[in-house]
Each structure stands twice: as C-alpha cells, then as structure tokens.
Amino acid sequence: MWDPKKYLDFADHRARPFFELIARIDAEKPRRVVDLGCGPGNLTGVLADRWPGAHLDALDSSPEMVQEAKQRGIAARVLDVHDWQPDPETDVVVCNAVLQWVPDHLALLAEWLPALPAGAWFAMQVPGNFDAPSHREIRALATEPRWRSELAEIALRSADAVPTPAEYATVLAVDDIAVDVWETTYLQRLSGPDPVLEWVTGTALRPIRAALDDEDWREFRTELAPRLRVAYPARSDGTTWFPFRRIFAVANKPSA
C-alpha cells in the first residue's frame, strides 16, 4: 500500500528528475500523452500544461495514489502496467519512477516500443541506487535471524530491480529508434530527524511495511534508524547529504 502523503514529503527532490526527463522530449503536438504511473498526480498537470491539445491518460496501479490524483483534479484511473497497451494515437509516454517495481519491465519495453505509432516518444526514469548504503542496510537487517523468515525474500528481490543503462539502451534501440540514455547522481540535502529513514519509508520500505503488522513495523524502523545515521551522518548544521543515482532513457521512433 502506498502512502501518498509520505511520498510527497520530499516532493521537490522527487520532482526534479521528472522535469529533467521531459525536457528531452521534443514532441510538438502529440495527440495522446500517457502518464504511466502517475502517482499522486502532482506532476501530471505539468504534462497537461505543456501539451494542452493532447488527450491525457493518467494511470497508476495504486488506488491510494489514484484517489490522491483525483483530489487534485486529475482524471486518473487504476491500471497495472502489465495491462496497458499503447493506443494508436499515443504519441508521448512518460514513465517516471515506476518500472523499478516491475521485475519483468524489460520485456514490457520490448512490447511497448513496437506498438507505439511512428514519431512517438517514450521517456522513463528509474532510481539506480539499489546498491547504495541505504538499501544495503535494509537488506542486511531484513536478512538477520529476527526478520529473515518474513522479509529476506522481499528485501533480496530489490537488489537487481534495475538493469544497467546499457541494458536499457539495448532494448530500446531497435528498428532505427533514436535513444538517449544517461544517469545522474543527485547530492540531496535532507533535513529533519532521521531524514534518510523518512525518505526510504516513502519508497524502498513500502514492501516491508506491507509485510509487517504495526508493532513489527515500528520495531524494524527502530532498528534501521541508527544504521542509517551511521551510513549518512548529519552535518554540523543538522542537514544530511543523501546521494541518489537515477537512470534516464528517452526513445523516439522514426516518423513515417
């Protein structure tokens, strides 16, 4: 279960990759724009403003996120990415911080790109920090005897959630499709008590939260907090540097 409000606690940091991603889309008058994994809809309106003449589809697998988007005036609907297929007029697809949750997403990309019309754009961004100290500490704790039976499989599943940039380029660059793939590490300055713990609570810890009852969840967070403080020590001014790597890919099909 997603918690939209927790996710939005760091809205500025989470939004920056979205803007840098869509800046590389050079579509002028798309007929249909798809926000595939729209989340709470806080960025979907940006797509509507950029392409006001397009029909906008906002989709997400989380009912909680879709409800939050609707409260923002977005006509979002619940749909799993496995059930999505491009409409013949889908000229732009934006998939922002979604596919890391989909183990078979390389296979989906291989299906989606050929189905898009000539001249279409597909833009995606995923976190590439699964080997960062934050995620290593989560996996280490989850595989200790206290938690192993409930959490080890969940935690270890995330270790290879995202392929390399070269693997994305290989899947996308077929049939003369122009592909731009890059990665960026943002040095995010977080504030507040245990800011890295609060950050991962909104994303990486979501599957673990779903597997635990309230008491065990509080205990897991209590054990994880000091580990993250050591991995990401607070500065003298109370803020914490949190490096965050992300992988981007933009593909443009040749025009007819």
TrEMBL record:
EC primary class: transferase
Keywords, sorted A to Z: Cytoplasm, Methyltransferase, S-adenosyl-L-methionine, Transferase
Biological process per Gene Ontology, one example term: methylation
Xref: CDD domains: AdoMet_MTases
Catalytic activity annotation: trans-aconitate + S-adenosyl-L-methionine = (E)-3-(methoxycarbonyl)pent-2-enedioate + S-adenosyl-L-homocysteine
Keyword hit for Cytoplasm: yes
Signal peptide: none
EC number per UniProt: 2.1.1.144
GO molecular function annotation: trans-aconitate 2-methyltransferase activity
Predominant place of localization: cytoplasm
Similarity comment: family membership: Belongs to the methyltransferase superfamily. Tam family.
Function summary: Catalyzes the S-adenosylmethionine monomethyl esterification of trans-aconitate.
Name of the protein this chain belongs to: Trans-aconitate 2-methyltransferase
Species name: Nocardia iowensis
Gene that encodes the chain: tam
